[in-house]
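Two proteins were folded this term; both appear here.
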Amino acid sequence: MVLNGPNLNLLGQREPEQYGSETLQDVEATCRAFAKNEGYEIDFRQSNHEGVLIDAIHEAGVKVKAGEMLGVVFNPGAYTHTSIALHDAIKGAEVPVIEVHISNVHARESFRHKSYISSCAEGIVVGMGTFGYQLGIQGLIHKRA
């Protein structure tokens, strides 16, 4: 699963100097092609609602335990810095997560330096642009397949 949090539906139009000109649909197409080349399929999702993201993580946990999914490549957007609930969902569902951020959050505003997701993630990709999604998928495959 590739899961995207709030405002990522605005990729390509929101702060292109920070996030680039690719749209979320472009990212999805690239992820699907990359995964297919590796022998996998992608369940690609985006939501601006924290509860929907939590439900997706719970669903992924069930699928991982059933051997139907490797885990989640997760760009939590701004929820990275605010959501203890997402942290708890990842830990509770026991789902492997690779945290992805398009920009280098550590080179930005100080409030972006704290991640509630990093401590429960198996890996983190930061500042590699949308290419970071492919790195996240590759990392998940490497750690889990």
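Next, the second protein.
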Amino acid sequence: MVLKTLRIGLIPGDGIGREVIPAARRVLEALPASLKLKFEFTHLDAGFETFQKTGAALPDRTVEVLKKECDGAMFGAVSSPSVKTAGYSSPIVALRKRMNLHANVRPVKSTLSRSATTAHLKPIDLVIVRENTEDLYVKEERTYDTPDGPVAEAIKRISTKASRKIATTAGEIALRRQRIRDSTGVKPNEGQTAPRVTITHKSNVLSQSDGLFRECAQAVLKQDQFKSLIVDEQIVDSMVYKLFQVPESYDVIVAPNLYGDILSDGAAALVGSLGLVPSANVGSDFVIGEPCHGSAPDIEGKGIANPIASIRSAALLLEFLGEEQAAAAVHQAVDACLEEGLIITPDLGGKSSTEEVLLDVLKRM
């Protein structure tokens, strides 16, 4: 039997990243032999502790190995210093820039079980696709004096190229989600008859910048390759309200950088814990899976960190590497664990350990 080899860089980072990334690795290694996959893993350094030891939060070697030797990567978590630290900047932000990762993809999914802490009675299964390179995050600011005191200004940059690219990514994700549903027999959200992409913007006020984003996204999603999609749009403030009121109405949401950042963090509250929420940083030829939680120093070393976000991030990694069947196998095992609701970590109101959750997921694979 000929096996396909995937070379994965593992960047545990700080804190509980060193506990959940090994869990994700074990899940990848446990994929059924029928999928004909094998993995080669390379351990790489990044994070605040790496900065303290070496003076670099993101060593050049880490980037070089990712570019030359890896098909994808998993990133754990990063600690942020509590005071301004000369020479330090976030390694994951730097990694996104140096690896040209234009999209941050964050699925938000709940399951109905006795462990559920969400107030919503209907399952939530949506994805927020956030443009990752521009908007206010270009960090071009200035402050100048006026007779009435200092005034600060910031550049909000929206480009045709980046807007078209993120809309294309959102459309492709919607189509892939439907393929995975079809292959596993999972039904779409209630009331949805086809995969849907919702364009989020504020073009009623920002007619040039957000207006350009809206126009580009609409043009891309009208192309023949996306003809099976339902495409709608939502003003961002109304989007926030509806996301919390009827999250089950959404499938894929695409937004500029700032709105996507706010919506994705808020949406995590809908499912009860950041310990459940994965993400992927996606470029044209590389992807990094990354759980959305932080380094959680308060529980570091206690063996109770929730590994689900990391495991789901590994499934996302597989999706973007074209291994949809393998991704579906991981998603199904995680969902079954959560639906039963017997093996759950303290962040969800349980008493299970990281290892117990991992073993339960492995058993279901």
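Residues 114-120 have pLDDT under 50 and may be disordered. The radius of gyration is 20 Å. These notes refer to the second protein only.
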